[in-house]
Amino acid sequence: MLFVACAIIFMSVYYTAGQFLGTEYEVRVINGFSNNSSLPLVIWCVSQQDGDMGGRALQEGDDYGWRVKTNIWGDFGYLCTLKWDGKRRSFEAFRVGRDSRRCGPLNKCSWLVKEDGFYFSSDEVNWKKHFSWC
């Protein structure tokens, strides 16, 4: 009984509230290009939790989104590869340890992909550039 109590205390201290309680997050990748009507943004995502999520071709303004429910089993992520106009970039669209806090009170993790790079927002109003295509 003491072991169970210690384990519960350890888990409640070690994990953030979102990780421990199974919080749900909304993840979106948005094609934010201003003039690419003939060249879609191709996205393909996989995760340790859901496996291969398949690919999509996003036209200007389109988005690809999914919901993530955290669990107590660890830090899993969603890796996406994007291609556009001969460019290719892979990035983690969501990782529990990194995003359980930064996705804000709305639990929204959004990526806006533009010609000059990848922007993150937790409210889809304030965007911050995180990296370029190269």
What features would you describe in this structure?
- The chain has 134 residues and is of the alpha+beta class.
- Helices cover 19% and strands 47% of the residues.
- The protein has 3 helices and 9 strands.
- It has helices at 2-14, 17-21, 96-102, and strands at 24-31, 41-47, 51-58, 63-69, 77-84, 87-95, 108-114, 117-121, 128-131.
- A hairpin with a 6-residue loop joins strand 8 (117-121) and strand 9.
- Belongs to the plant self-incompatibility (S1) protein family.
- It is found in: Secreted.
- Its main location: secreted.
The main β sheet shows up as: 5 strands, mixed
- Overall tally of domains: 1
- Rg, Cα atoms, Å: 17 Å
Strand-pairing-aware structural class: alpha+beta
N-to-C order of helices and strands: HHEEEEEEHEEE
Record the strand order, biggest sheet. 4-1-7-8-9
The coarse silhouette is: globular
By CATH, the topology is Immunoglobulin-like
How far is the first residue's CA from the last residue's CA? 54 Å
The CATH class label is: Mainly Beta
* Number of helices, where a helix is a run of at least 4 consecutive DSSP H or I residues: 3
Note poorly predicted spans: 3-20
Organism: Hibiscus syriacus (Rose of Sharon)
Main location: secreted
Protein name: S-protein homolog
Pfam families: Self-incomp_S1
